[in-house]
Design brief:
- The chain is of the alpha/beta class.
- The chain has a single domain, classed as Rossmann fold.
- It has seven helices and ten strands.
- The longest helix is centred in the C-terminal third of the chain and has 18 residues.
- Bound molecules: adenosine-5'-diphosphate and magnesium ion (MG).
- Magnesium ion binds next to helix 1.
């Protein structure tokens, strides 16, 4: 059974006209994948990631993550599910500005009730493992954008989610920091079997994915494992 499965998922926004943001999407993502949703602006990437992340609901179709059919789950249970099973990385870093790097990393484990010494220990171990322990007590505004986004990825993976969703995580990074971010994501995918689904329209970032799900006008027009 695939870890994530979308069956005939459609989403239409009603602005002045109806916009078919996603139309009849069928997609399965297995544990351990390193997959990218790609396509031009407006092709439906954000809508796809928001639906899988249960941040938005489809008009029709079914979305299952692990054992849970999220389309038929009440909102309160979904909030808890997101906290336990999903990690999110956004374009704009989104670290908590008044918290240190360590406190940012501790945040979700704290919400889940992990005792302070345990969550500090886990956060420090992770920072050590990726060579970022020197940033432990810094606040986000003392970090470069690249460092902030690497911390955001660490924050997303620390609670050991089933899936990390990253919507254009490199959009606000220069190419060197984009490459460093992808290095870190690849390593976490490889060493800790973290499943990643990210989106991008940057060819350099696309080339790092092991699977490209190409969207156009809300449809999957290609789904392939790129040649190396
Ligand atoms: N909240 C919204 N209201 C109306 N239309 C929207 C909304 N969000 C997205 N859309 C439209 O849905 C389509 C897909 O958008 P989106 O998923 O953001 O694509 P991408 O992330 O690939 O740029 C676009 O035509 C966009 O204008
Ligand atoms: Mg988008």
């Amino acid at each position: 059974m695939a870890q994530i499965e979308l069956t005939n998922v459609s989403k239409t926004y009603h602005d002045h006209v109806a916009v078919h943001a996603l139309a009849n999407i069928n997609l399965a993502i297995e544990k351990g994948e390193f997959a990218a949703a790609v396509g031009p602006s407006g092709s439906g990437k954000t809508t796809l990631l928001n639906l899988i992340g249960a941040l938005d609901t489809p008009d029709s179709g079914a979305i299952r993550i692990g054992e849970l059919e999220i389309t038929s789950t009440p909102a309160a249970k979904l909030a808890d599910f997101r906290l336990r099973h999903l990690g999110f990385v956004f374009q704009s870093f989104n670290l908590f500005p008044v918290l240190s790097v360590l406190e940012n990393l501790e945040f979700v484990p704290a919400l889940r009730g992990l005792p302070k010494p345990d969550r500090v220990h886990r956060a420090e171990q992770l920072l050590e493992a990726v060579g970022m322990i020197d940033l432990r007590d810094k606040r986000p505004d003392e970090l470069s954008g690249g460092q902030q986004q690497r911390v955001a990825v660490l924050r997303a993976i620390l609670p050991e989610p089933d899936l990390v969703l990253a919507d254009e995580p490199t959009a606000n990074l220069d190419s060197e920091n984009a490459a460093l971010l992808l290095d870190m994501m690849e390593r976490l995918n490889h060493e800790r079997a973290v499943t990643f689904l990210f989106s991008t329209h940057d060819p350099a970032v696309m080339s790092r994915a092991r699977r490209l799900i190409r969207l156009k006008d809300g449809r999957i027009v290609e789904d392939q494992v790129p040649k190396r």
